[in-house]
Structures are given as C-alpha cells and as structure tokens.
Write a structure and sequence with these properties.
globular
Length: about 170
Amino acid sequence: MTVFFMSNKISLLFCVALVPILLLSSCARVRSDGSDYLGYQSDIGSCEGTALYKGKEYGIVFTPDGAGPTVEITSPESLAGYRFIGQSDGCLLKYGDFSMLCPKTELFETICSFFDLKEENFIDARIEKASGEKLTVVSFSDGVTVCLSSSGELLRVENDTVRFSVTKIRPADR
C-alpha cells in the first residue's frame, strides 16, 4: 500500500512539473520581450545585403513578393543587374531586355529559404554579445542560424552554404 501511494505521489509530482516545461517549450520561439523570432519575415518589401557564397561576396536585393520571390544581384559589377524571379518550374533570369527560364540556383533557393523559415524547425535561441551589443542568435533544425539585434531587427542569416548580412530592409507597402 505504501509503495503504491508513493508511486502515485511521484507520478503526480512528475505531471505537475511537466506541464510548465511543456508550456514554456511551446512558447520558445517568442522573445522575452514578447516579440516573435520569425517576425522579420512578415513585413519585408525588400531586403538588401551581402551574401558570402562559395568564397565570393555578392550584393543582393531580395524581394519576397510580386511575380515571384526575386533575388537581384547588385555586385560584383560583372553580374550587377541579373535578376532571378522564382517560377513554379524554375527561375526567370532577367537582365535588361533579355530573359530566359532556367533551373533554380543554389544561391537563389537558399536566400529564399532564409525568408521562409518554419516555426516547427525552431531549435533554440541564445544571447551573445558582439561589439558591446546583445544579439539574439536563433537556431533551426535545417541548419539555418538567424542573428537579431536587441530590438529584433534582422542582422544576419546563414547556413553552411550562404551567409547573408543585411544592410537595409524596406517594409512592405500597405
């Protein structure tokens, strides 16, 4: 009888302790100030920055809407003006008056994926200090890491292939 009572008591304590842990883990993608770690994805008209890809640096402007997600290359000068517009069957490559359908490139797909992260892939978030500022570093199961400023602004997104550093975000037109 005593063993039965003790095991029920332990089970009850375990359940009582488990409920707050489950509640906290389900809210893990929300910052301590109440803002959303993935909130930067929702109101972007365009995002400018530099992408380090295979040892080379590219100036990039990403636009999530319009005829399809668009990645425009702004540098190096030899590639400036190339635009890749996502289509269901590949990318529409545009340069001046020239356009053609081509397969989606790794750089295009990776940049687009940085702005289409899923809540269910969230692993954890940690605070780091850099140049005297506290940064929030968020990790996802697909290998993506997002770095946000203390005010929640997107600074950098990266995986093992591309590192995209943000210089300017233009909000979506309303």
